[in-house]
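Appendix B, record 7
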Amino acid sequence: MQFDEQADLDTSQVEDRRGIPGGNLAIGGGAVGLIVVLVAVLLGVDPKLLGLSSGGGTSSSSSGVHTAGEVQSACKTGADANKRQDCRIVAVTNSLQEFWRAELPKRSIAYKPADTVLFTGRVNTACGLATSAVGPFYCSGDLKAYFDLGFFDELSTRSGAKGGPFAESYVVAHEFGHHVQTLTGAMQKVGGDRQGAASASVRLELQADCYAGVWAHHATTTPQPSTGRPLIASITDQDIAQGLDAASAVGDDRIQKQATGKINPEAWTHGSSEQRKAWFTTGYRTGDMAQCDTFSATRL
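Structure tokens (predicted):
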């Protein structure tokens, strides 16, 4: 995955809160509780749905020392995105915004920008307090996607994913898929149907995977306003393989198997590894968000 080195990065779309204390939050149940959280919201939706409460808790944080606002000073061009992980997240955010800004009006849907928030340890959101243990998430209350970049290390060490730049890009694109769902009204379809292999929650997550694939299909042809050229210069087959590997790593069946040795589809919230790969592939192959109607699909 390569970015146009002469491209300008718009850091106004990213809030860098790394190094800012975010308050206290407890996740009950020790190690078991952490597994439940990971299964429930890994690449998921509002953390308030977990019933999180304030108190002293355990959190993980990304490696290295970072300061608030660091991306604003460090991330200027596509060349920076080719060198630094945080600048890469800025660039992917920029690409996603430009694509969906152009795509949704074609379907008579107004686009509202979403901010990406980088944090370490814990963060305060319109959906409540959350720790890094929650994983990446989107909050519809403030239209922001939240990431502790240390998650990507956890994805490799705990879930066995191979990682890589496009694996990270897939995760960001998935969360922006939830933003699109907020704008289309799909987010509101879930209601209380939050568990089970054919539940609305699973359909929501698989659609977000498909939307991530749609963006990937168009990423190298979506022009940047300031240059007229695509911000993302190339995505290779190897990059797509990284994304598919990440999607497989966060399948409910794989996480359940690793955590308990058993697979229980009745408790699924995000879909199986094969389903997540299949829906991302559908979006990537077609480039058509109309093909991502998981809510009408008879077979997921």
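Remarks on this record: The longest helix spans residues 165-184. The chain has one domain: 2-292.
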